[in-house]
């Protein structure tokens, strides 16, 4: 599943289509008739967490890539796209993703201050949300899109390793300094992720995710499926302290 930084990269990659009129629209989506997009001008592209938003004057198309979604710019895959948009000789194609049509103003639906890569990100709001759910596990808190929109499983694993917190720790049991560090690193690592992804060197910077040995303690890392989402989690039982 693409994490927030990957959606930001997509938003930057399609910037040239902003202000362009769609000359043809098709696709296999059943959520709306793609043909209604023909002749419409794209006013903006936005991202919120893992959501990619294609904005038009009176509505927005939301793209969520789920686990296996992909996109192609000015090229196609062999499979039928979920949504195909043409701009003269240029095109955008989205595959294996969830699409929806939003008619309400985005400001009524999205808390932009919760997006870890948005310029309006608000750390104090995140701290307040963590305080309201003290029994939430650290691994679940980082994947909670209402708190950390854009954080995915890779970022979760790497942040917890950076701050030396066991994924099964309860948020309310973390010392205040650790909670602040969790919030800070959720954003800090997301920007590192973005930089490394653009350079095509993300994986070489992983310290815990998919790794077998802790680089700090040189002991085997644990691999378990933890939290409400049962996501794959890599952690060190020596240096990542359990707060319960």
Q: What features would you describe in this structure?
A:
Keywords: DNA damage, DNA repair, DNA-binding, Endonuclease, Glycosidase, Hydrolase, Lyase, Multifunctional enzyme, Nuclease. Belongs to the FPG family. One of its GO terms (molecular function) is oxidized purine nucleobase lesion DNA N-glycosylase activity. This is Endonuclease-8. Residues 2-88 form the Formamidopyrimidine-DNA glycosylase catalytic domain. This protein folds into 2 domains: 4-109, MutM-like, N-terminal (N-terminal domain of MutM-like DNA repair proteins); 112-235, Helicase, Ruva Protein, domain 3 (Orthogonal Bundle). The two termini are 30 Å apart. The chain is built from 6 helices and 10 strands. It has helices at 4-13, 106-109, 123-131, 138-143, 153-162, 176-198; strands at 24-26, 44-48, 51-55, 60-64, 70-73, 83-87, 90-95, 98-102, 222-226, 231-235. By secondary structure, the chain is of the alpha+beta class. It has a 4-stranded antiparallel β-sheet with strand order 1-6-7-5, with no helix packed on it.
């Amino acid at each position: 599943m693409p994490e927030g930084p990957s959606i930001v990269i997509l938003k930057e990659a399609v910037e040239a289509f902003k202000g362009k009129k769609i000359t043809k629209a098709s696709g296999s989506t059943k959520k709306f008739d793609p043909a209604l997009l023909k002749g419409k001008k794209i006013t903006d592209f936005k991202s919120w967490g893992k959501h990619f938003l294609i904005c038009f004057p009176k509505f927005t198309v939301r793209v969520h890539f789920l686990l296996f979604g992909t996109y192609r710019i000015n090229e196609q895959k062999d499979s039928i796209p979920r949504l195909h948009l043409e701009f003269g000789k240029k095109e955008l194609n989205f595959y294996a993703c969830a699409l929806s049509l939003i008619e309400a103003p985005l400001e009524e639906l999205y808390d932009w201050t919760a997006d870890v890569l948005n310029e309006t990100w608000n750390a104090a709001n995140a701290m307040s949300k963590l305080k309201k759910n003290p029994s939430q596990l650290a691994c679940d808190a980082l994947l909670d899109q209402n708190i950390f929109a854009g954080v995915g499983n890779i970022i979760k694993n790497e942040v917890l390793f950076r701050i030396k917190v066991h994924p099964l720790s309860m948020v309310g049991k973390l010392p205040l300094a650790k909670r602040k560090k969790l919030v800070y690193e959720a954003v800090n690592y997301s920007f590192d992720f973005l930089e490394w992804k653009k350079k095509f060197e993300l994986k070489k910077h992983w310290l815990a995710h998919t790794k077998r040995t802790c680089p700090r303690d040189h002991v085997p890392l644990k691999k378990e499926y933890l939290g409400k989402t049962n996501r794959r989690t890599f952690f060190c039982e020596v240096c990542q302290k359990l707060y319960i």
